[in-house]
Amino acid sequence: MTQKAVRHILDTIGELFPDAHCELHHSNPFELTIAVLLSAQCTDETVNKVTKDLFQKYTKPEDYLAVPPEELEQDIRRIGLFRNKASHIRKLCQMLLDKYDGQIPEKHEQLVELPGVGRKTANVVVSNAFGVPAIAVDTHVERVSKRLGLAAEEDSVLEVEKKLMKKVPREEWTQTHHRLIFFGRYHCKAQNPNCELCPLLDRCREGKKRMKPKTTRKTITNQ
């Protein structure tokens, strides 16, 4: 794909969603890290409902360690995989206290060492909390990138990330990450993409298949 074609995709998505942003509610890097950890295999909407009360009850790492594990599990019960996530949160908080004076570290390589924090979560935190350009590849970013030809269908999540980092100007990484998510979440959905009104239909592998006119077969009747 040419740089001109990439630019067209970025500009078009930018026009559709100029104000795309992180939809997880948070007021500091610690809350953002907890919210992203909770969002794995769960919608941002559900996470926000849970963290509304959670972040009032727990404001620092010590708070999560001061209650029995079962109490924290109960507080996040509406979240998928809540037992595993509660365990990760407690271990993460302990590591923050042991190694980082209770603060979220700013470096990517330090973040990925935290329990429950993978590459995607680390990218979200460094970009949104600390202003470091990054592209976090979630299911929306991966799906849209492959449909629009920014990545190959067989590419792994890491390969998608590397290709986007190569094709998108560094200063636009974080912005593009949010816009690709909005495009995938509100327009180019997994099951019911809005192909009929899509300004990028000519670039989309999935859209071309979906919009291809179905051939009608004539029924031959025996006279």
UniProtKB/TrEMBL annotation:
<keyword id="KW-0411">Iron-sulfur</keyword>
<dbReference type="InterPro" id="IPR005759">
    <property type="entry name" value="Nth"/>
</dbReference>
<dbReference type="GO" id="GO:0003677">
    <property type="term" value="F:DNA binding"/>
</dbReference>
<keyword id="KW-0004">4Fe-4S</keyword>
<dbReference type="GO" id="GO:0019104">
    <property type="term" value="F:DNA N-glycosylase activity"/>
</dbReference>
<dbReference type="InterPro" id="IPR003265">
    <property type="entry name" value="HhH-GPD_domain"/>
</dbReference>
<keyword id="KW-0238">DNA-binding</keyword>
<dbReference type="GO" id="GO:0051539">
    <property type="term" value="F:4 iron, 4 sulfur cluster binding"/>
</dbReference>
<dbReference type="Pfam" id="PF00730">
    <property type="entry name" value="HhH-GPD"/>
</dbReference>
<dbReference type="InterPro" id="IPR023170">
    <property type="entry name" value="HhH_base_excis_C"/>
</dbReference>
<dbReference type="InterPro" id="IPR011257">
    <property type="entry name" value="DNA_glycosylase"/>
</dbReference>
<dbReference type="InterPro" id="IPR003651">
    <property type="entry name" value="Endonuclease3_FeS-loop_motif"/>
</dbReference>
<keyword id="KW-0479">Metal-binding</keyword>
<keyword id="KW-0408">Iron</keyword>
<dbReference type="InterPro" id="IPR000445">
    <property type="entry name" value="HhH_motif"/>
</dbReference>
<keyword id="KW-0540">Nuclease</keyword>
<dbReference type="GO" id="GO:0140078">
    <property type="term" value="F:class I DNA-(apurinic or apyrimidinic site) endonuclease activity"/>
</dbReference>
<keyword id="KW-0255">Endonuclease</keyword>
<comment type="similarity">
    <text>Belongs to the Nth/MutY family.</text>
</comment>
<protein>
    <recommendedName>
        <fullName>Endonuclease III</fullName>
        <ecNumber>4.2.99.18</ecNumber>
    </recommendedName>
</protein>
<feature type="binding site">
    <location>
        <position position="198"/>
    </location>
    <ligand>
        <name>[4Fe-4S] cluster</name>
    </ligand>
</feature>
<dbReference type="InterPro" id="IPR004036">
    <property type="entry name" value="Endonuclease-III-like_CS2"/>
</dbReference>
<dbReference type="GO" id="GO:0006285">
    <property type="term" value="P:base-excision repair, AP site formation"/>
</dbReference>
<feature type="binding site">
    <location>
        <position position="195"/>
    </location>
    <ligand>
        <name>[4Fe-4S] cluster</name>
    </ligand>
</feature>
<keyword id="KW-0326">Glycosidase</keyword>
<feature type="domain" description="HhH-GPD">
    <location>
        <begin position="38"/>
        <end position="186"/>
    </location>
</feature>
<keyword id="KW-0234">DNA repair</keyword>
<dbReference type="GO" id="GO:0046872">
    <property type="term" value="F:metal ion binding"/>
</dbReference>
<keyword id="KW-0456">Lyase</keyword>
<keyword id="KW-0227">DNA damage</keyword>
<feature type="binding site">
    <location>
        <position position="204"/>
    </location>
    <ligand>
        <name>[4Fe-4S] cluster</name>
    </ligand>
</feature>
<keyword id="KW-0378">Hydrolase</keyword>
<comment type="function">
    <text>DNA repair enzyme that has both DNA N-glycosylase activity and AP-lyase activity. The DNA N-glycosylase activity releases various damaged pyrimidines from DNA by cleaving the N-glycosidic bond, leaving an AP (apurinic/apyrimidinic) site. The AP-lyase activity cleaves the phosphodiester bond 3' to the AP site by a beta-elimination, leaving a 3'-terminal unsaturated sugar and a product with a terminal 5'-phosphate.</text>
</comment>
<dbReference type="Pfam" id="PF00633">
    <property type="entry name" value="HHH"/>
</dbReference>
<dbReference type="Pfam" id="PF10576">
    <property type="entry name" value="EndIII_4Fe-2S"/>
</dbReference>
<feature type="binding site">
    <location>
        <position position="188"/>
    </location>
    <ligand>
        <name>[4Fe-4S] cluster</name>
    </ligand>
</feature>
